[in-house]
Design brief:
Layout lengths: L6 E4 L4 H21 L2 H14 L7 H19 L16 H18 L3 H4 L5 H9 L20 E6 L4 E6 L8 H18 L6 H38 L3 H10 L4 E2 L2 E2 L10 H21 L27
Antiparallel strand pairs: 1-2, 2-3, 4-5
Helix pairs in contact: 1-10, 6-8, 7-8, 8-10
Length: about 325
């Protein structure tokens, strides 16, 4: 077995792309949980704990490293590999691992995200809480078989010396340097979080400000998507009826209308009909997005999922 290179390379995305990929990733995870072939689920879970060591403190870093194995394998089969892809195995049987990674990569393409990420959906109680507190900044996710926007820069991280290098594409004569630098600052911090590296108070302040700017523009969209996913989880995991799901959200102060927190009892609210319609539409959008593992406009009507067939359930992870 070759020695690990300890060098991880990530395609860089701007905050808007990060937000889109975050939601697509969460839709894919729930699609896998509800619609995947059982043999695919069994295959992934059978070796998941062997190749990925996860606990409350380092699961993000573990997932990041394991995700990179698939990225490097993709480069390898396309004759673009620079570093060896044995990032998460030390004493495993190489022949077996070659066979395993081949199938794992096929399943990654089938379900759009890393097989390691598929079984680690986010806790959307926490996501919604971040949104209503103006602290939402999505994790950087990799969507396979999907072109990532070229934003003029990329990062390379050398774990051995704990340094990140920023490489800027200067071939674009119309490049907006001010825009590039301001977006790169946010993207760099998101990459540090994804790698499991510590962030400073200054880093967190930059993310908070960026999230405020984003929420001011897109609160309804990101809130609606997140509310729809949370209602899906409450119905699927706990068997909640729609009204009970809304009640659970309200108990945690997560009901918002037009960016304003709801403090009234639903029984006496004059906007109850419109409010219920809004959350039903949010849930319907989530149903469509999860069914197709894709993202859709929140303004277009969709059909509501009536029954859940799969008994498979994955633990929801906090940030």
């Amino acid at each position: 077995m070759k020695k690990n290179s300890d060098l991880f390379e990530f395609p860089c995305v701007d905050p808007a792309v990060a937000e889109t990929n975050f939601f697509i990733s969460e839709y894919c995870k729930r699609h896998f949980e509800e619609y995947a072939d059982k043999k695919d689920v069994d295959f992934i879970l059978d070796k998941f704990n062997e190749y990925v060591s996860i606990n409350d403190n380092d699961y993000k870093k573990a997932l990041s490293k394991s995700r990179q194995v698939l990225i490097n394998y993709e480069q390898k089969i396309n004759n673009k590999i620079i570093y060896d892809f044995y990032n998460i195995v030390e004493d495993k049987d190489e022949a077996f691992f070659n066979s395993w990674i081949k199938r794992a990569y096929k399943l990654t393409l089938k379900y759009k995200i890393s097989v390691f990420d598929l079984v680690c959906p986010r806790n959307f109680y926490q996501v919604l809480s971040y949104i209503v507190q103006d602290k939402f900044h999505p994790d950087v996710e990799i969507i396979f078989c999907k072109n990532v926007s070229n934003v003029g820069y990329e990062f390379k991280y050398d774990e051995q010396i704990n340094k990140i290098a920023m490489i800027i594409d200067v071939s674009d004569n119309n490049q907006d340097s001010e825009f590039l630098v301001s977006n790169a600052a946010v993207a760099l911090i998101l990459h540090k979080r994804r790698l499991g590296l510590k962030t400073s108070d200054s880093d967190r302040n930059i993310l908070i400000q960026a999230s405020k700017n984003d929420i001011n523009k897109n609160f309804r969209t990101i809130y609606s998507r997140s509310a729809g996913i949370l209602i899906w989880d409450l119905k699927r995991l706990y068997g909640c009826e729609f009204e009970e799901a809304i009640l659970r959200m309200r108990e945690k102060n997560l009901i918002y209308r037009e960016g304003i927190q709801c403090i009234e009892s639903c029984s006496y609210c004059v906007d109850k009909v419109a409010c219920v319609r809004y959350y039903r539409d949010s849930y319907a959008n989530a149903c469509k997005a999860i069914l197709n593992s894709n993202i859709y406009s929140t303004s277009k009507p969709a059909k509501i999922r009536k029954k859940f067939a799969s008994k498979i359930q994955f633990l929801r992870y906090d940030d």
